[in-house]
C-alpha cells in the first residue's frame, strides 16, 4: 500500500491519489455509492429545512410543505448527483428519468412499510427496511436507468 520508513507506513490519501491507487473504501463500496449517500444526507437537510421554514413561517401546513420540500430536494439531488456522482451534464430528459426513479423509490417506501404492517411487525422493522433497502435500490436504479450510459443517450 505505502512505502515503509522504519516500519511505519507512509500511505496517505494524497499519496494514494498521486500514485493512482484508489482509497481503501472504494474497493468495498465504490466512490459513486459514497457520494450518492453523502448527497442523500445533505438532501435530507434541504428537505427538512424547507419543511420547517414553510411550517414555522406560517406559510403552509405540513403536508403541502413536504410536497414542496420533496420537489425542491429532488431537483437539488438531481443536479448534485449529475455533476458529482455520475459526472454527466444535467438535462430535462435525465431529470425525467431521475424523477421516475425517485417516485418509484417513494412507492417502494410505501410497499415496504405496508409489508411490515401487513406482517404485523413493529413499525420500526418497516422503517429499517426502508432505510436499508431504499437508498441501495435507489442507487442501483439511478446508476442503471436514470444515468446509465448518460440516460441511454438521453432517450
From TrEMBL:
InterPro entries: GtrA_CellWall_Glycosyl, GtrA_DPMS_TM. Keywords: Membrane, Transmembrane, Transmembrane helix. GO terms for cellular component: plasma membrane. It comes from the Bacteria. This is GtrA family protein. Residues 36-147 form the GtrA/DPMS transmembrane domain. It is a multi-pass membrane protein. The chain crosses the membrane at residues 33-55, 61-82, 94-115, 121-140. It holds the Pfam family GtrA_DPMS_TM. It is found in: Membrane. Belongs to the GtrA family. One of its GO terms (biological process) is polysaccharide biosynthetic process. It comes from Zeimonas arvi.
Amino acid at each position: 500500500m505505502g512505502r515503509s520508513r522504519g516500519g511505519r507506513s507512509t500511505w496517505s490519501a494524497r499519496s494514494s491519489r498521486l500514485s493512482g491507487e484508489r482509497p481503501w473504501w472504494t474497493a468495498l463500496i465504490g466512490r459513486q455509492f459514497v457520494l450518492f449517500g453523502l448527497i442523500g444526507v445533505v438532501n435530507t437537510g434541504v428537505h427538512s429545512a424547507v419543511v420547517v421554514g414553510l411550517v414555522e413561517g406560517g406559510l403552509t401546513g405540513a403536508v403541502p410543505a413536504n410536497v414542496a420540500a420533496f420537489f425542491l430536494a429532488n431537483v437539488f439531488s438531481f443536479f448534485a448527483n449529475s455533476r458529482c456522482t455520475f459526472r454527466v451534464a444535467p438535462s430535462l430528459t435525465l431529470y425525467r428519468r431521475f424523477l421516475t426513479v425517485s417516485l418509484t423509490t417513494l412507492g417502494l417506501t410505501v410497499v415496504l412499510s405496508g409489508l411490515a404492517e401487513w406482517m404485523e411487525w413493529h413499525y420500526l422493522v418497516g422503517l429499517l427496511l426502508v432505510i436499508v433497502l431504499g437508498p441501495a435500490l435507489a442507487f442501483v436504479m439511478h446508476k442503471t436507468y436514470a444515468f446509465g450510459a448518460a440516460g441511454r443517450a438521453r432517450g
